[in-house]
Design a protein that fits this description.
The radius of gyration is 16 Å and the shape is globular. The longest helix is centred in the C-terminal third of the chain and has 21 residues. It contains 7 helices and 5 strands, in the order E-H-E-H-H-E-H-E-H-E-H-H. It is an alpha/beta fold and about 190 residues long. The protein has a 5-stranded parallel β-sheet with strand order 2-1-3-4-5, sandwiched between helices. It binds ligand FNR.
Length: about 190
């Protein structure tokens, strides 16, 4: 494995202050091995995608800033809840904004991983796999194993915001595997 530190952009599919997904993302950042430096990327201020804004040179400043920011990263980690068995619109919008203008996708060829989070027992499986479908098209080589499904997440966090040992062990192993995945699939 390469000794070069890789920069990971962490994208959370929830804007909620007390978001479980946000808490899982923070824990993943904390548990990242030394070869990864991970940070959350804001997606809440992105205007809903409309191709006219690019085509008519009215690109919102938030899109420009977001697209520039994403170029800094070597890899992306997506941590998302499930909305109605799919990806929350705020996350899909961020993916769409980053993917355009055509031919200038910021996602292209950067390795990725997905963790879905839910208080329910199905663990956001639908969102996880809908997201993977987009990542296939966007040419993001997405880690296959371990798969990241955090179900009954409310029971994994105590009143002080600390995760139980079982979840910490899983998340730590996930990040170790992701470090190997990033090192072996990075193109730069
Ligand atoms: C949900 N929730 C939900 N949960 C799930 O497991 N499968 C689902 O399809 C849905 N659908 C859904 C739709 C909408 C519009 C909302 C607001 C919620 C429940 C969801 O998992 C729960 O609210 C989580 O706490 C949301 O994630 P964050 O914000 O805690 O990260």
């Amino acid at each position: 494995m390469s000794n070069i530190t890789k920069k990971v952009g962490v994208i959370v599919g929830s804007l909620r202050k007390e978001s479980f997904s946000g808490k899982v993302a923070s824990e993943l950042i904390r548990l990242a091995p030394a070869s990864l430096v991970a940070e959350k990327i804001e997606i809440g201020d992105l205007t809903i995608f409309n191709q006219d804004l690019d085509d008519e040179n009215r690109t919102p400043q938030a899109w420009i800033t977001f697209r520039e920011k994403l170029k800094e990263f070597d890899a992306f980690l997506f941590v998302t809840p499930e909305y109605n068995r799919s990806v929350p619109p705020v996350l899909k919008n961020a993916i769409d904004v980053g993917s355009r203008p055509y031919g200038q996708s910021v996602w292209n060829a950067k390795p990725g991983a997905v963790i879905s989070v839910s208080p329910g027992r199905l663990s956001g499986f639908g969102a996880n796999h809908h997201l993977r479908q987009s990542l296939v098209f966007l040419n993001v080589p997405t880690m296959q194993q371990p798969e990241g499904y955090i179900g009954e997440v409310d029971k994994a966090i105590d009143a002080n915001g600390n995760f139980d040992e079982r979840t910490i062990t899983f998340l730590e192993g996930f990040m170790k595997a992701f470090a190997v995945w990033v090192a072996t699939n990075s193109t730069k």
